Fold each of these.
Amino acid sequence: MNKLEHLQKLKLKSLEGSGQNAIEKQHSKGKLTARERIEKLLDKNSFVEFDKFAQHHCNNFDMDKKIFLGDGVITGLGKIDGRQVYIYAHDFTVLGGSLGITFAQKICKIMDLAIKNGKPLIALNDSGGARIQEGIISLAGYSEIFYKNTKASGIIPQISAILGSCAGGSVYSPALTDFTFMVDEISHMFVTGPDVVKTVMAEEVSFDELGGAKVHGKISGVSHFISKTEDECFFQIRKLLTYLPSNNLEDSPEIDYFENKDLSYLNEIVPENPAKPYNMYDVINAVIDNDSFFEVHADYAKNLIVGFARLNGKSIGIVANQPNTIAGCLDSKSSVKGARFVRFCDAFNIPIITFVDVPGFLPGKEQEHNGIIIHGAKLIYAYAEATVPKLTVITRKAYGGAYCVMSCKHFEGDLNLAWHTAEIAVMGAEGAVNIIFRKEIEKDPSKKDEIIQNYKEKFANPYVAAEYGYIDDVIEPSETRIRLIQGIEMTRTKRMDKPKRKHGNIPL
């Protein structure tokens, strides 16, 4: 066999994994192989593989008889919609996708290249965890990956898809990335699996109940997106990237877009009665470019809406209270959800538009015990620290501390607008008069309605805030789109210099 034939033989061998039986077993679980996943996610024929001939050097426990080219992970670069990305995919058909030191070194090389070249990094996770046979060096491999995840944070977008098992220490790499995708009934993430839980806690729990896609998408908040199939997951990843820059020094992709929308119907969409619910999605979708809203964390903390959209073809981030869910109150979960999203947008120069209709923070023992104070402070910190363009529209309620938290003018907001329906006050009218005019009402309860009406006319409106410059303008709802477009144009060249420091101390 000559050298060329030898090379061709090795190339073919590197494509085989651990053989056809292992591939069929993967398919029988309803899962794609690592190479099939890469092929479906990336542009056709764009993948360039690295380190296909790499292999482990472990001799413990007969591992010298279990050597496969590539060592259970496929790494390289490719393109999505013509834009370069770096990618790695665990190959579960090879030693259960377990991570050893060679496996980790391959991943670290790709991570370094992504950081140096300023390109997004995508991880397709399907692994049994650390390779026990390699002992401490497998843990060293994980540690190096975690370090590089942290190093890359805020420099390049990092995206993780969980497409099978992700257990033990391996869960922390996806948790360190910017966005995590999971597929229902296929994806599982947990620090300890059901068998360990049963042994230690005497608790019977299934894989899905412990760490399935719905658990992490709706309850824990670990997952940002839940997909029904792997194909849908890949479609969502591709769509997400259309809103994001390749790195923190570039702008997000723009598209040519012009639409002269008639938004006169918005004047009727928000009821003046502060107790009456409505759907904030109707407001968002009216204002942004048609069909451009891409929600993040859609199933988690539904009282706060976050996601990406386009305004006149430009990528923006949206944060909005949802009045039809617990009246739009902020709570512990929604505060963390909002803070994380705001910080991502700030890191990657994506303007933030905030739609405000919030009566306050959710009261009660449960919220206090869950740390509403510290979690609310995270949202304050995120908005206050953000230097990207910040545009705010108060549609109706903006009461108390929640007014402050939701991107108020005092956090160096660039454009703060209020609809004519806005009520900006320390609290709602009824609660306020019960405190201020308690004695008068006790003497003559019949005057309560009149007192409430007088309070509303004097305080529960946007004009007092406008008098002090805390609101830049009071507008009709139908003007919202054009005013926000003007605001984005106004802030295109925004620059803010902050005092030099190592970093702040966000209340974690």
Amino acid sequence: MIQQSKVNTTTNKNIGKEVLNKKLGNPIMQLRLTCNSPLNFYNPWASETSVPVDETIVTSSGKMLLLDRLLPALFKRNHKVLIFSQFKTQLDILEDYCRELRRWKVCRIDGSVAQDDRRQQIAEFNNNPEYKVFLLSTRAGGQGINLASADTVILFDSDWNPQQDLQAQDRAHRIGQKNPVVIFRLATKGTVEEDLLLSADAKRRLEKLVIKKGGFKTMGQKIVDADGEGEGMSRDALKALLLRDGEVYRYKGGDEILSEQDLEILCDRSDAAYERAERGEGDKEGFKIVETKLGGLMEGMGKRKGSTSATAA
């Protein structure tokens, strides 16, 4: 009893110290960490290696609950997955979850990984079918890496700069990719992450609007009409550019995180599924599918094209 009391006292001191350290940081950053997992503020498995990882690493976070339902369904269908996060502490949590709790073979790249280790892990992941999940920090794993053996990207948290997320997604969109690539973006409803995604989405729309309005065809060359004036933009084309891309799936709560029907819809990549999406015959109650093109708004996904799915936890 005395020994247990000493352990509890030490743990409480460690927790208090970690929380006090967090108070010195950017409050927006701390709110983002909270959306990911409360274990970002105190991770008992990082400080006490003798403590076995248990299910609380999953049940303490809505995003982890979604991930825990989604990953086995993807692995069952022989998909390889890249998981990106902005935070090293979150990568630690994800690694403990994959390696220690679920016993999956996992690779990891962040800013502290040496170049030789990077090359070795990339080769292992691309060539060894037993490795099905790769953890990467968005900034460190966003450039110069070819992971075309993966056909699924999960953005565990998003960047204020949408180009960083796009560069991360491109690790799977590389030479040698033979399958359609699906991107899942996890976000927590009613939190700072909504503001972040709105800001990033506005930047993307502004970028498309500026490029289209400028009429850039090639470097330094504008599209001009017969009168020598710059090409105008129709109201429909402008409206299409101002709409966001991708699929949106909203989890409405309840006892079941993702039903088997939800998983079938999220994981279905058959030709028939793409054709149904093109015709707008998907599950409209759960999903809204939008593809923005310069010619206007198209409901549905182009066949054999990757899509972005935002999942609200």
Amino acid sequence: MATQGKVNAGHWAAPALEPKRSHRFVLLLNTVPAYVIKKVSKPNFTVAETPHKFMNWTFWYPGKVEWDAVTFTLVDPVRPNAALALLEALKAGGYHYPNEGQENNTEMTVSKFRSTQALGSVKIQQLASSRSGTKAEVKENADQIVEEWELKNAWIQKVQYGELNYDNDALVETTVTLRYDWATMNQGSAAKWANNSDKGAAN
């Protein structure tokens, strides 16, 4: 009976089991405000593979780990001008126009240090949905972090400013690609609270 209770506690029929929702997130970075960001891809990694062939067999060995670029899309308002903020981040990273004079240090080029400093800290926070419990418990733990990804040494690799079109009145969107060295993931307080609730239900 105890085993059956533990299985049911983690089943989708259990009211305490809450899935992560794709629309509950916040992307935090210094360049643009969080409320203009429409969507963001989560970090992904790929483990390279190396084969070794012996007679009639092939044996595979894991190799280097490479993290994929992260892309996010934002709706560009007039104020604050997100398009201008991204261009300023590029210039802060070391880029300059060919016609700029010596007073603007034309010998400076884009560097990783300046680019990462211009972008600042980059965090993707996934938020919790409303949970069961007393009113005090729900109020205390609502909209807290389920998981938090932090991109290490992130810099702007690509910006696509979208397109303008007389045929529609859609909002202008900008797509930004970020390159980084690696990402860390921390479990937030809301996820820990949910785990403790599940344990209590299982007991």
Amino acid sequence: MAENGVVYRLGWVLYWTFCIIAGLSVLAALATLFGQKPQTVWLPGTFAAAVWLMGRAIRYILAGD
């Protein structure tokens, strides 16, 4: 696939957007871990993993990487 096409670049932009959201979710998981309810840390952690995987799937589909 052409590495300078619009769809290729859109795949990378969406991937990085999802990575930022996943990173913020990891920060929320750490805050939960050190906060008052450490037993609920799995929720933002699972959300972060799911968001990152969605971003990776979008990058694979659009950019072919």
